[in-house]
Amino acid sequence: MAVNSLLRCIRLLRKRVATHLAQQRALSGAEAVTALRPFYFAVHPDFFGQHPVEREVNETSLKRLNSYLDHLQKPGSHSVRPMKLTFYVRDTKDSSDVQPDLLASGFRSVSFTLHTYDVLSTVWNVLKSCSLPIEHMKDLKTSVETSKRPPEGGGLSTDLFDGIRATTASLDSKTLSRSCSRPGGWSPLSCCLWLRNNEPEATKKNTASLPLREELNRLKNELSRKLDLSDIRWQRSWGVAHRCSQLQSLSRLSQQDPGALRNLRGHTVMFADQSGLNASGHIMLGTMDVHQQWTKMFQQLPSYHSLLQQSDWLKERISLLLGGTQVVHKERLGPIQPITEHYSTLNTFHKSLISHRLRLHPRSMQGLSMSLENDRINPSLHEMGYFIIPATCDPPKLQVFLQSHAPEARQRTQRRNQLQAEEAAVVKLCLHNLSLSSLSKEPSLSSSQMIMCCNRLVEQRAPLMQGLHICVSQFYSVMQDGDLCVPWDWKS
Fold first, then answer.
1. Angle 71-75-76 (CA atoms, 0-180°, nearest 5)?
2. What are residue 233's DSSP bridge partners?
3. pLDDT computed for residue 73 by the predictor
4. Alpha-carbon span 106 to 42, nearest angstrom
5. Whole-angstrom distance, CA of residue 45 vs CA of residue 57
6. How far apart are alpha carbons 99 and 181 in whole angstroms?
7. Which residues contact 67 (CB under 8 A, 6 or more apart)?
8. Distance CA 362, CA 208 (A)
9. pTM as predicted
10. Residue 325 pLDDT more than 70?
11. Are the CB atoms for 130 and 37 separated by under 8 Å?
12. Could you give phi then psi for residue 451, rounded to 5 degrees?
């Protein structure tokens, strides 16, 4: 009895010490944003206007970092999963030393894995990994009252992107004017004036890229026919020359070892950051991998297909349990979800559902959809009308959430369909009236933003855009192949 009593005392003491240390090391959301200020200046996506790949990577990594910090606010944050992040870092006056590993673009590529259990350690890790100063952290208040801790699932009191906006808003006028005048940066010029200044350069680059564009289309069509592919896509906005070299590499492999590519028939091939099969069933070819790695992955496709079939079966079972709600996979920027991870998420969620008897009418949620996320805490309703559900969501709470938000979800879904139809019509009108070669938008832009931008372009009838490739974005830029990026909210 005495031994048991002693053990209980030791466990209680350990618990109190751990709680005390956690409180001492706690950091509020506002303090985290302040501490990460040098980091924002070094990785802010708006400073990467002429480098769309790096910009996309930073934008996605910031969102994932924000999600990681949100997880740390949840009680029991010891269960947070390690997260690997990659950032392209600008050299600023805040860099702790000169880095020898600069890329040709002038940025440093920094990759690190977060495996921390509190906000303070996470912020410290991020700054250290990016070789940014940490002296200012010593002045931060590193302890808060337990009562000030956000409620469960409340997330950070200040979102990372709010912090970025607040940080850039506080830039002095000289810094702002320097960043605005940089090629590819945001510009205060009107759209007409900017086009007048940059159309000659865009036309020259576009003309020079025409032979490569023709070769790209030829290779894509030839490989699609030869390998019987459904489509060929790219994860990132690589240049025309880069995409051509990727297709040429696949073409060489098809000539050297045609039997190895037999399993590609009927599939969509996507050139991506890693090789494998993604959650949508697309075959990913890592652009940094060699032919031997591609061939090895092709041999594993039958087992991947088995996982894909099991994933589809799990989606059907989940839909039956949730009143007809369809599980969909939303492709996002950044790391693509492999089929192995997707299957694991579905399987975990399905097991959780069948352990409870939910009372949802079989067709009460018909026509609605949901996306399962591993890095979420609370369920939410996206502005486009689909539910975003944490894979570890409590089933009874999920039922209440779905039922209470179903009417709003139907309204948003209907609105989304209307906007998408309107967007397709106005893009077609814009292409015709302005005689554009192509018109696209960044994935981060909504249909409403695209519609507003296109309507204004049609009204203005800018002749300087004829024959060019236009991408509606967040910034002005002339890309390496002559594509013009125009901000969706451009000034008249």
1. 85
2. 270
3. 64
4. 12
5. 9
6. 25
7. 375, 376
8. 58
9. 0.66
10. yes
11. no
12. -60, -45
